[in-house]
Amino acid sequence: MTEQTSLRGNVRSGRTRSGGTSQKSAPARAGAQAAKSGFGKKTIALVYDFDGTLSPRPMQEYTFLPKIGEDPKAFWRECNETARAQDADPLITYMHLMYKKAKARGVRIDRDDLVALGRDVELFPGVDEWFGAMAEYIQIRSELSQGVELRHYLISSGLVEIIEGTRIRPHFHNVFASEYWFDPYDLPYPKRVITDTGKTQYLFRINKGIEKLGDSINEHMPEAERPIPFSNMIYFGDGDTDVPSMAVTRKNGGHAIAVHAGGKARTKCVNLFKAGRCDFFAQADYRRGSELFKRTTLLIDRILADIRVQEETWRMARAIER
Q: What average pLDDT does range 196-202 have in this prediction?
């Protein structure tokens, strides 16, 4: 069951099929209008990394690299060595090498091929059911605050095209990921590259409601007009590449959960927790009853309580003004 069909009653769902297609042209004015008509800060945003967070391995290892006959370990080693030797960005380097090697092997992979490859991406246990389960939980727990909306976002250095082909893409309100420009007469080249620190830009886009990438987020927007406060966000990541996003989210009053695949990977999450980068950590088991499920819903309960307190404060302030 998809998020849209499972959200009933108090929980509303909003999502777009591509970057910012449902975006209002004047989010600041929209926020101000919402503040006048009713308490508008009732959207909860669950924001995810992809590789290592929702999926055990980098998405390219399930799809692109096998198609061109490339060993994953050898490919990533070459990417790192090339980036260091050329003083280049590692993400741009991997996007360039993927198609350089495909061309050398005479393998043509266009955008539609990349989307089709997304069907083969493996997900952690319970990911398919997670979105509906979160919606149902919030529906039950938000009875005292009508109109709570749940949104899922994805911010990844992986490829938009492959993500579009995964079975979970319809659950996301928006996806911000690296992407190619395709030219029929030349090699594809990077259209957008999302780095570790660059991910934080998209957190502020979610916060300000400016999800259309052509619109600047640099103009000041009062906190009262921002539709999704950081305090209503939970960021999910798996390692060092997520540290900037975790730090920004928590510094601004939000929450973060580090996930791991078990074994030695747990150590990284323990270190993130000790460093104050995350509220909780858990194994990447998204099934009901798991530690991840329990710790996520604990933070959701806190967010819902904060929403109720803020809404009551807002009502009192409005009553005094009258």
A: 95
